[in-house]
């Protein structure tokens, strides 16, 4: 008899989780099967995948609805019934079955959360107040003693998360390894203290202050996008260099008309000592001093990122060098101050002997012309150096003076470990659209004018790079302009480089004369080139609105060069020219396929060539069809990026509660001790309040008013002043799950996805649909699951029917099997018969979810 093959249940958990990820990618309905019908091991693997990363809008209504659902579930009531069994309007039904609701209700789900991200909520533009109100909202005070002590009160349509409730959620997630605060307001004062006491294994901590949801534009740290059809500008607008009154300051990092919020980083040293990654933006003067004094508490810190802080100086850098001995990556971004000098950077190099990556992005500083010669030689561990500067400025006149000595560290003796070098310019997204790149509305700061600094083959920088060219893996040198001779020498002498980015001081077609040089660079895979506007006069007459309309009319994604496009067969598909630009009169600027094939005859490793930067036309991808030696060339034109505003692209699947009656907060995350007049930290508790404690709590000190009031009076944890937070005014959507690699600083690209489940089969439903049908619905496919390299899962919005047979706004609830309450166990992954959602469910044995942990 042949040996029995092992079952999925016997596989290790990481293998099962990987199988679940692949299964969800192929069929989203597998989540329902895995959570209800398969064995406990696969249930646990599925739960781990879904709950791994939890992203929560900074909207208190969402958390209130999740708590309410958890309370109703623990009490055995239906999600749409009150204490008397009457149906009531409630937000709990909207979030039932979402990951957030499961985390609030069940300890096993909370224990599987590894990443928690708080983001700015999405706002429907139709609900925004007038511009004057939005401006007043931006001028809010962060003084807790002021009447408008926190954004999101009277002037905001979205009440922010209650601090104490957020702390309760954090305490439930005991295995949290990563926490990110990316909202429009400052984090709670006791956040670091709570994380330090609750999450002993925390590895990553990030605080990023973004724009208000009422600002209507990109926030700090976000790139403004260009939406098709929304471009402002025309060929009749002034061109670069023709408008003497053009203001460069209006495009700088510090162009905000009001003072941005600054974080004091209270109790930063209370974070666990296990921290390996720390990222902080918008520090105040006190916050920068707190950071300096707290670095000694993190001996395992490997990555440190500081951004948008005027108060980072040499003292902070010296503290980094003294205390962060294990540091491998240091990023300093958007620092308009001039308090950083070569002395502080030298302290970092001296103390952080294992430093591998150094990034200075939009840093002004006070660096002298001899900076790099004074710092040479660099640590041998440093293999990546990135220096980036925004074109629009404004910049100090000396900002690039230190580059005069950069050649000192580009030699093998000055930078023995360097393999990746970036000295690049950052172009405004609006200037990337052909036809707008030459307008005065998209200026180039005179300090970064490429015509002032053109590298040639004998230039000291080129000489130093080519002294030992084989060591380079990546060279991005588009801050300077380079002539054809300099590009030719770099390609020929840096044979091991895989990516090259240059600003070519010549027409684009001149690249085709460098075929032999490309062939000499035997490892080159990606080549990116920018062309100064004066070499593209054909683009000066192009209307950017016309370009956006033509490119946006054919948004089909580029097909992979290694695969035949749909519908193509045989030789006809191979011979078809797909390198023509959608804008017909720009085709003269793009070489035809036959010229590309001639160019690539000897450059077999090149995968793509991109015309990027100002007015860049797009990307050419090269490859061959499977089983064919004929080279294929496919062209993808430059397309505008999506607008990076709050909530862009977000799916409003369950809404915040809009009940006409106020609701008290559930005991799942409420707090039974009397709040301290000075701290919210003392009120933390996972157990429901006892009758005695409830009786002793006065209305003035109780966090919540009685059930049934129109709104809830909340005692401020830090000041004791009353704060009114309406549970019916929120407009954002529920929490959702996403991949651990999630790095968005706002809700712009975030969906709001509950756990998928089959449509309701309750009495009154018009029909019974399969879960696969539910995903597509009557209007076609509305969403699907996506996977990331990190193993995270996101699901598109689903379609469902509620108990009355009308389309619901969220996917119906999935009740996970209660292993503790089931005395029988099916074999072979059998499915337990499920009752109607309106009928009572058999309660599991043991303590209810409203109590403390077992």
Structural features, described:
This protein has 854 residues and is of the alpha/beta class. Among the domains are: 8-49 and 756-805, no CATH class; 52-225 and 647-659 and 732-737, no CATH class; 419-552 and 583-641, no CATH class. The chain is 21% helix and 14% strand. It has 22 helices and 24 strands. The strands form four sheets. It has an 18-stranded mixed β-sheet that branches. Strands 18-19 form a two-stranded antiparallel ribbon. Helix 2 (30-36) crosses helix 3 and helix 11 (285-294) packs parallel to helix 12. The longest helix is centred in the first third of the chain and has 16 residues, at 60-75. Residues 131-155, 217-257, 553-577 and 642-854 have low confidence and may be disordered.
- Rg, Cα atoms, Å: 29 Å
List the total number of helices. Answer: 22
E-strand count: 24
Helix content: 10-25%
Q: Which consecutive residue ranges, at least 5 long each, have pLDDT under 50? A: 131-155, 217-257, 553-577, 642-854
The helix-and-strand class reads: alpha/beta
- Major beta sheet, specifics? 18 strands, mixed
Mean pLDDT rating: 68
Percent in strands:
5-15%
Large-scale geometry: globular
Distance between the termini: 46 Å
């Amino acid at each position: 008899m042949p040996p029995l093959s092992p079952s999925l249940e016997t596989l290790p958990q990481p293998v099962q989780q990987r199988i679940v990820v692949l299964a969800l990618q192929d069929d989203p309905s597998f989540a329902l099967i895995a959570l209800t019908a398969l064995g406990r091991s696969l249930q646990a693997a599925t739960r781990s995948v879904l709950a791994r990363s939890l992203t929560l809008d900074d909207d208190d209504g969402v958390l209130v609805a999740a708590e309410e659902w958890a309370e109703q579930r623990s009490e055995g009531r239906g999600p749409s019934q009150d204490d008397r069994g009457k149906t009531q309007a409630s937000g709990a039904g909207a979030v039932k079955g979402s990951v957030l609701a499961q985390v609030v209700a069940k300890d096993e789900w909370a224990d599987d959360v590894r990443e928690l991200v708080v983001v700015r909520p999405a706002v429907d533009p139709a609900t925004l107040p007038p511009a004057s109100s939005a401006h007043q909202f931006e001028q809010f005070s962060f003084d807790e003693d002021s009447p408008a002590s926190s954004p999101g009160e009277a002037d905001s349509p979205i009440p922010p998360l209650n601090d104490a409730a957020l702390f309760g959620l954090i305490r439930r997630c005991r295995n949290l390894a990563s926490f990110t605060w990316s909202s429009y307001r400052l984090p709670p004062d006791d956040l670091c203290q709570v994380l330090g006491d609750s999450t002993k294994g925390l590895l990553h901590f990030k605080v990023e202050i973004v724009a208000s949801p009422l600002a209507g534009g990109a926030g700090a740290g976000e790139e403004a996008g260009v939406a098709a059809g929304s471009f402002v500008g025309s060929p009749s607008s002034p061109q670069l260099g023709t408008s003497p009154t053009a203001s460069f300051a209006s495009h700088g990092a510090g162009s905000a008309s009001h003072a941005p919020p600054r974080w004091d980083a209270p109790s930063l040293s209370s974070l666990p000592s296990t921290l390996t990654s720390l990222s902080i933006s918008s520090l105040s003067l006190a916050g920068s001093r707190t950071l300096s004094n707290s670095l000694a508490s993190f001996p395992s810190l490997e990555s440190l990122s500081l951004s948008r802080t005027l108060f980072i100086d040499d003292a902070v850098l010296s503290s980094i060098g003294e205390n962060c001995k294990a540091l491998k990556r240091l990023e300093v971004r958007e620092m308009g101050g001039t308090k950083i000098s070569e002395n502080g950077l030298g302290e970092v190099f001296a103390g952080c002997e294992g430093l591998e990556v150094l990034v200075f992005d939009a840093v002004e500083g006070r660096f002298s012309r001899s900076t790099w010669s004074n710092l040479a030689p660099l640590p041998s561990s440093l293999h990546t150096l990135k220096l980036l500067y925004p074109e629009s400025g404004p910049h100090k006149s000396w900002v690039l003076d230190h580059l005069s000595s950069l050649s000192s560290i580009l030699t093998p003796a000055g930078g023995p470990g360097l393999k990746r070098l970036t000295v690049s310019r950052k172009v405004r997204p609006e200037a990337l659209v052909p036809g707008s790149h030459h307008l005065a509305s998209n200026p180039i700061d005179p300090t970064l004018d490429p015509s002032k600094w053109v590298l040639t083959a004998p230039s000291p920088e080129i000489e130093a790079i080519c002294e030992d060219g084989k060591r380079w893996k990546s060279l991005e040198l588009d801050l300077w302009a380079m002539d054809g001779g300099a590009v030719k020498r770099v390609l020929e002498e840096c044979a091991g480089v895989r990516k090259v980015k240059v600003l070519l001081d010549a027409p684009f077609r001149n690249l085709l004369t460098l075929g032999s040089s490309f062939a000499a660079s035997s490892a080159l895979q990606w080549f990116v080139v920018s062309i100064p506007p004066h070499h593209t006069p054909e683009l000066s007459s192009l209307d950017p609105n016309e370009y956006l309309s033509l490119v946006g009319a054919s948004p089909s994604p580029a097909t992979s060069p290694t695969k035949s496009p749909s519908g193509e067969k045989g030789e006809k598909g191979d011979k078809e020219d797909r390198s023509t630009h959608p804008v017909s009169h720009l085709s003269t600027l793009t070489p035809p396929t036959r010229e590309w094939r001639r160019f690539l005859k000897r450059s077999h490793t090149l995968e793509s060539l991109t015309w990027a930067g100002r007015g860049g036309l797009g990307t050419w991808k090269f490859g061959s069809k499977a089983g064919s030696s004929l080279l294929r060339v496919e062209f993808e034109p430059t397309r505008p990026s999506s607008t990076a505003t709050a909530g862009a692209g977000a799916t409003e699947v369950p809404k915040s509660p809009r009940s006409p009656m106020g609701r008290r907060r559930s005991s799942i995350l409420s707090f039974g001790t009397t709040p301290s007049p000075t701290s919210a930290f003392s009120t933390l508790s996972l157990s429901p309040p006892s009758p005695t404690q409830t009786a002793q709590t006065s209305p003035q000190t109780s966090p919540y008013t009685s059930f049934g009031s129109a709104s809830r009076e909340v005692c401020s944890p830090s000041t004791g002043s009353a704060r009114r937070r309406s549970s019916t005014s929120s407009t954002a959507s529920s929490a959702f799950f996403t991949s651990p690699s999630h790095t968005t600083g706002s809700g712009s690209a975030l969906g709001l996805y509950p756990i998928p489940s089959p449509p309701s089969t309750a009495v009154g439903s018009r029909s019974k649909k399969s879960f696969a049908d539910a995903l597509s619905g009557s209007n076609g496919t509305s969403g699907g699951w996506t996977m990331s390299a990190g193993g995270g899962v996101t699901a598109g919005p689903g379609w469902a029917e509620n108990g009355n047979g009308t389309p619901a706004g969220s996917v119906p609830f999935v009740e996970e099997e209660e292993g503790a309450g089931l005395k029988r166990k099916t074999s072979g992954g059998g499915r337990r018969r499920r009752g109607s959602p309106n009928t009572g469910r058999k309660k599991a044995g043991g303590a209810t979810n409203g109590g403390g942990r077992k």
